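Module 6 notes. Inverse folding takes a fixed backbone as the condition and produces residue identities as the prediction. Think of it as a translation problem where the source language is geometry and the target language is the twenty amino acids. Below is one complete input and output pair. Work through it position by position during the lab.
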């Protein structure tokens, strides 16, 4: 029999990111329990954040070892939207980095079963880039009995590792984070004929134009729209003498596009990357966090960013 290697040849110096899809309880137990016990043998902090059923299975199989876990928490209360969840996750990772040379995490993002939680696949993809130097093994648990096929396909595309039966193996469907994001962001179509387009040479011009352009039935979003677009205009005017600001409505969505003729973005994933606390918030992160969705087109001839703001019913959570 081949000896089980829960983390393969991982040496604890950089991120290892595995998407583990299971369709039976015993598959989950056989994968996660050895993963946890290996962490104990290596004196690594082991964190488990999962749904109620998964926690119950692990508790029953770990027995007295359950108390050795550094964290054993319910995933159901962790979802705060994509940006809010990742920001809290980022804070916890930085705290661990300050106290442990390496650690491991078994996490079940239960919110992927929700319509509003499926955006998490984008953050899973970006984690491969922004946490590459973090010394931990992230074992992401996905129950095929609960998740739709399109979510499971995104798991395969956003995780560089999968389970090979006795050891982790390269995921054959894994995609570069920027390419993955381009494929799942809103489709980039031609501006409609009735789009309002103007040239902006200072952010204050853009703020004034947007204050007038936001439709009356979504004035409750005015602050979000103006602040998000302001951040993009500031970025655009750092690399170009002027920016173009366009606005239009698609169904129940108000779209803002900011474009420039600069050299292009160094990294199209920046809107999903948490800002470094030492350097303050980044404009794209703030803009993405205020909008309901975003899309990017960038290259040597310039960058265009579209922010989507939906009309939310009164009292609805974003």
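Target side of the pair, the amino acids:
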């Amino acid at each position: 029999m081949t000896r089980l290697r829960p983390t393969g040849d991982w040496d604890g110096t950089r991120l290892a990111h595995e998407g583990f899809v299971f369709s039976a309880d015993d598959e989950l137990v056989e994968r996660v329990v050895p993963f946890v016990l290996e962490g104990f043998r290596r004196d690594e902090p082991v964190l488990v954040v999962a749904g109620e059923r998964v926690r119950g299975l692990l508790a029953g199989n770990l027995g007295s070892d359950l108390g050795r876990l550094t964290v054993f928490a319910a995933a159901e209360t962790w979802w705060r939207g994509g940006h809010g969840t990742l920001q809290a996750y980022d804070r916890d990772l930085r705290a661990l980095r300050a106290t442990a040379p390496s650690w491991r995490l078994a996490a079940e993002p239960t919110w992927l079963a929700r319509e509003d939680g499926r955006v998490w696949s984008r953050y899973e993809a970006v984690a491969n880039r922004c946490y590459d130097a973090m010394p931990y093994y992230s074992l992401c648990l996905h129950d095929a009995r609960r998740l739709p096929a399109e979510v499971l396909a995104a798991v395969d595309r956003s995780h560089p590792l999968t389970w090979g039966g006795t050891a982790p193996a390269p995921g054959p469907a894994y995609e570069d984070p920027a390419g993955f994001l381009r494929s799942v962001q809103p489709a980039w179509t031609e501006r409609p004929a009735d789009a309002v387009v103007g040239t902006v040479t200072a952010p204050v011009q853009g703020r004034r134009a947007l204050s007038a352009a936001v439709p009356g039935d979504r004035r409750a979003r005015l602050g979000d729209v103006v602040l998000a677009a302001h951040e993009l205009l500031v970025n655009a005017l750092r690399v170009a003498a002027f920016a173009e600001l366009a606005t239009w409505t698609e169904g129940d969505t108000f779209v803002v596009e900011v474009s420039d003729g600069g050299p292009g973005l160094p990294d199209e994933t920046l809107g999903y990357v948490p800002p470094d606390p030492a350097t303050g918030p980044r404009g794209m992160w703030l803009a993405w966090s205020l909008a309901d969705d975003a899309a990017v087109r960038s290259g040597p001839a310039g960058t265009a960013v579209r922010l989507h703001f939906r009309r939310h019913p009164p009292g609805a959570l974003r």
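Reference fact for the lab report: The chain has two domains: 16-183, 196-310.
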